[in-house]
Design goal:
It is globular and about 45 Å long. It has one domain: Alpha-Beta Complex (Spore Coat Polysaccharide Biosynthesis Protein SpsA, Chain A), CATH 3.90.550.10. Helices cover 24% and strands 20% of the residues. It is α/β, with parallel strands linked by helices. The protein has eight helices and eleven strands. The strands form three sheets. Strands 2-7-4-8 form a four-stranded mixed sheet. Strands 3-9-5-6 form a four-stranded mixed sheet. Pfam families: Glyco_transf_7C. InterPro entries: Galactosyl_T, Galactosyl_T_C, Nucleotide-diphossugar_trans. GO terms for molecular function: transferase activity. Keywords: Transferase. This is UDP-Gal betaGlcNAc beta.
């Protein structure tokens, strides 16, 4: 990713988020926690004071790319930059193994909102980030899309033939969120919008490790 972003002349920092406990994976809660750590202390007055352990280590970020670790852009036309609205970069996936066999990418469903998505900070604050209630794989991205729509925020999407990402195939033993259909009921999404998200996330910063090319945040969420 470094060479890819440098060719686009981006000023950036790559940050890996690690869930440091034995509970089911919670992608949205990791993202909410990282947002709280990466916003400078006091920059968003309506939120509680941020943890000073890392807050002053970072400049004030205005653009966030939520990027699954198993995805890499296939096309150089995929631009990593923030506009006034969120942009869904991933439109189709191509398994690394299948690429060598000349197979065609699998296109995601039209409202897909995951994998690699770009937000400006104020869009995320307006929708209160993502719900912290989605443990296991699946559902949190659909909830985030619903929050954006309820808040009147449009989502830009790349053409299917441009937004292609090379992807490592997932294991069959992943813990799927069996409760996601219930959690995605419209009434519950509306109820959670202001009461469950970025402003309410509970977490502990376990470790903060800076390497020459990237940073690691270990979070107990």
């Amino acid at each position: 990713m470094h060479r890819f972003l440098q060719l686009q002349r981006r000023r950036y920092r790559i940050i890996f988020l690690e869930q440091d406990n034995e509970r089911l994976f919670n992608r949205a809660k990791l993202l909410n926690s990282a947002m709280r750590e990466l916003c400078l202390n006091g920059s968003v007055p309506q939120f509680p004071k941020f943890n000073p352990y890392s807050a002053l280590r970072f400049e004030s970020f205005e653009c966030f790319v939520f990027h699954d670790i198993d995805k890499l852009p296939k096309n150089k036309e995929i631009a990593y930059w923030c506009g006034p609205e969120p942009t869904q970069l991933v439109r189709a996936k191509l398994g690394v193994e299948r690429k060598t066999m000349g197979e065609q990418p699998d296109v995601y469903y039209s409202k897909f909102m995951g994998g690699v998505t770009i937000f400006n900070r104020w869009n995320l604050i307006l929708v209160n980030g993502a719900s912290n209630n989605f443990r296991g794989w699946g559902g949190e991205d659909d909830d985030l899309y619903a929050r954006l729509r309820l808040s009147g925020i449009s989502v830009n999407r790349l053409p299917d033939e441009v937004g292609v990402y090379l992807t490592q195939e997932h294991r069959d033993d992943m813990n799927i969120n069996s409760n996601k259909d219930y959690l995605l009921k419209r009434s519950l999404v509306i109820e959670r919008l202001l009461t469950d998200g970025f402003a309410q996330v509970n977490y502990n910063l376990v470790n903060f490790i800076e390497f020459p090319l990237y940073t690691v945040l270990k979070l107990d969420v």
